[in-house]
Each structure stands twice: as structure tokens, then as C-alpha cells.
Fold this protein.
Amino acid sequence: MKRLNRSRGGTIALFGFIAIIACFSAFPMVLVVGNSLKSLSELWKFPPTIFPKNPTLKNYVDMFNAMSSSVVPFSRYLVNTILITVLGTLANVIAGSMAAYSLCKLHYPGRDFIFGLVVKALMFNTTVTAIPLYVIMSNLGIVDSLWSVILPTLGSTLSLYLIKQFMEQSIPDSILEAARLDGASEWRVFWKIIMPNIKPAWCTAILLSVQTYWNTLPNMLIYSEEKKTLAYVLNQISASGLSRAGVTAAITVFMMIVPITVFLASQSQVLQTMATSGMKD
Amino acid sequence: MKKKNTKKKYTKKQILTGYAFLAPFLIAFAVFTILPMVASIVLSFTYFNGFVWPDFVGLSNYIKLFLKDELFMKAISNTLVFALVTGPVSYFLSLTLAWIISEFSRKIRSVLTLIFYAPSICGGVYLVFTIIFNGDRYGWINSFLLNHNIIYEPIQWTTDPTYMIYVAILVILWSSLGTSFLSFIAGFLNVDQTMYEAGAIDGVSNRWQELWYITLPSMKPQLLFGAVMSITGSFGVGPILDGLFGNPSTDYALYTMVHELSDYANTRLELGYASAIATVLFIIMLVANRFVQKIISKVGE
């Protein structure tokens, strides 16, 4: 569609500006992919190269070898990370959607107050609650277990907020009334009408939660080696010296693939959800 | 939040169904967010080491915090510097990039969105900056500057406090185009097109006026939401920097409230004192939110 008020010079200037920033933004990712395909000698060649001259998959092979050779097999960290990501995301999406339905479409005392608390909770970073949280978790007996990472996702406020805002604008009450008149229970209404119609919102919740839990580094809550996550190993290996730079790059790329794939798959849904993300003051 | 004055009668079934759907979230929210928040405020007035019952000590944690703890003053000023620089810059960067991106066709838009958003979702990639900012002559930046005779000695980018802060801000900004950025793109894409036509008739003559008088006011809710996300994010920086600068960093140049918090909580087990730190951080974030919301409500006036 032809837009009004567009000068050609302005368009060119803006395009140049955005091209420069895009290069800066993409450079570290391009470099890490390049490095993961370089041999060790090429990695430390000077002057350095961005793209590998003789690409090799050796770093990836080494990465999988490292999986079986360390004290705690690398695959253990992978399984932990996958468990946390899958269970955490499911918990987050289902509990968030149920709560959003309740806060948006059901009527009972205390509802607006609770949503007010949810919005307030968006306004501070969870680091401020870390200490009492630790005390509470140790009282619940879930410190040093994967549950200490998974259970709190049930109470994640950001996905609840986004789902609720989306639901408010995309599902008219009349559809729900019609279904209820037909004798559908609230549980049925939720699964048959609500969930299929708020797909963009829960795709967004999936993206946000996969990205959080895939990269999670629960240093404070989990201390047994065999319960640690991939992000932890990545930090360990990259701290263990320059000779592992190639493997580090390979693991970094491996870590990148999951969130980026999820984002590619959900981008248009996410933008639909974000269109309703606005906050009233 | 508006209070409704209508006194409505709810049936028992309505109340039960409502809370049944809310329950999984509400229980977790209460246990893992509300309770710790309240506990943190209460504990900040006590001496507590995690093993024996907390002792009430009045304001002494706060007195120690503001009067005697030099490291705390360092942490709070670093945190504020980070938040005051990276918060607003990242916010306006998100907004500007989202605005430009929204002018492109769908395909280019998707690619650009991915490029800008990806750093915020790819946890470990920032570690590449250790190669780029390596302190010896072979670090990328150093070798470039040395070869062009701009500098004569390699610069210790990640260990010299003079330069660390700039490198840190750069890395934080690089990875900060997150949820608010996406929200802004959606905001720009969903402005009612007829408003532009109406604006053109009313004398809006270039894209800057269009932006200020039509686009921004109509996406105010997104601007508010984005601000909340940016503020929450900008006060939490710290851990992401450890991989690059080490913890503790040289001269505590990048020591933030988050570090101070985990130092007292995990290493020294002075949980009461750490709670006082957390409470101060909490209050700063709420005040920042109030302040920013006031400013945003003035957009387009």
C-alpha cells in the first residue's frame, strides 16, 4: 500500500541506518557459526577470518565426544535442559491460559485485585525475591531438584498477562454464552473454544518460556553436578581455556538453534499477540 | 485499576469455577512471588542467617547499607548507571528500529526482526565478545586499532575499568531488543491507516509529524508495556556480564546490586542484610516505573 508523506531521501537514509545496525547485531552470531566450523589452527590464525576457509565439522564431533567422556556425561545436561524446557513450557502455557480465562471471562470477587497484582509483579525483576525464594524452596524440599526450576513457571506473570490481553480482544463473550447455553461445562468451553482461538497467544508463551528455560542457569537452586543444565556446561567449557574455543562455538550454535527455530516458527503469531500487549495506565 | 461500584451477587458456583481455573497459577504465584516479596521486606528488619529464627534488629540493616557499606554504594551507583543508560537507550533503539522495520515489506520485515531479536534469545552468543575485545594484540579491536596506528599499546577492554563500562553497555544494548521491541513492531503495524489519511488532510506533512501526532499517541499502551519490560530488564543486568568480565570484576567496576545481593545471600549468609538490599532495589524499580509512566502519558500532547 502506498503510504503518504514519504520522501525518497528519508527512506534511503533510514535504510542505510538500519543496515549498519543490522550488521552489528548479526555479526556475533555469524562469527560464532563461522568459528564453530573452523579447525583449531584456523581459529587462531592471524589476521582472523570471519568465514572458515576449510570448513570442518570436527568441533561438533568433539562436542558429541565430550558428551560421553566427562564425569557426568554431557547427555545428562542435555536431558536436564530438555526436561526443564518441555515441562516448564507446558506448565507455563496451561496454567497461564487457565488463569487468563479465569481473569478475563469468569466473574468472581477478588478478580480485579489479583490481576492488579499480576501487573505490579511485571514491574520488578525476580532477583529481588531470590533469597526468601531460596528459603521457601528449601522448606518445600525442592532445592537441588529440577522442580525448583519447573514449579515457579506455573506462576509466570508475563505469559499470563499476554494471554489475557489477547483473549480480551479476540474472544467475544457472546460465543461463550452460546456454548454455555448449549450445556458445555466451563472446562469444555476452555479446551474447545478458548484454546483453539488463542493460538497466537500461547505460541508467544511457548516462545518466551522456551527461550528462558533453554538458557536457564539455576546456579543458586541446583548444585548437584548431574542436575545441571547446558548453559552451565557452556560457561564451564568456555572458561576452561582457549584450546576449547572450537567446541565452545559448537555448543553455542547448538544452544542457539532451539530458540531461533521456535521464533521462526512463531514470529507472525507472536506479532499478533504483541498487538494486544498494551497496558492502560 | 478502576473499582466497579456495582454490588454484584456471585453464585457459589461462579466463585468456585473462577478460582479453580486460577488455582494452579495463583498458588505458584503466591508461593514463589508474593510470599518471597513480603518475606523479603520483613526479613530486611532482622538478622537472619538461614539456620536460626530471625532476630528483629529494626533499621540497622538499612543504616549499615547507606552509611557504612562502600561496596553497596558502588553497587547501587553501577546499577543506576546501567539502568539509566541502557534502559532509555535500549527503549529508544527498540522504538526507532521497530518504526523503521514496520515501513518495509513483510519479507524484509521478518528477516530484520529476526536479526535484531535473536541476540536477546540466544544465551551464550555474547561470549564471542571475548574474542572481539580480547586484551592482547590479537584481539580483533586491538589489532585493528594497532594496525591503523590509532593506539600503540593494546587496550585491556575487559579488565581496565576505564573501558569496561563502555564494552559492558555495548554488549547489554546488543542483547536488549526483546519483548518490548516485538511489542513496538506490532504497535506500529496496527495503527489505523485511515488516521494517516485524516492526518494528511489536517496538515501533517512529513513522517516525523506523522510519528509524533498520530502513530505514537495511538500506540501508547504498547509504549507503557515496553517501558515496564525495559525497566525490569535494565535493573537485572549483571550476571550476563560475568562471563565476559569475571566476577568480581577489576576494582568492582561492574559490581551491581545483583552481585551484592548474591554475595550476601550465598557467600556470607547475611540474609537479613541481603533482604534490605533487595527491598531497596525493589523500591527503586517501582519508583522508576511510576516516573516513566508519567512521562509516557505526555506523548503527543
Summary: Residues 36-296 of chain B form a domain with the MetI-like fold fold (CATH 1.10.3720.10). Chain B has one domain: 36-296.
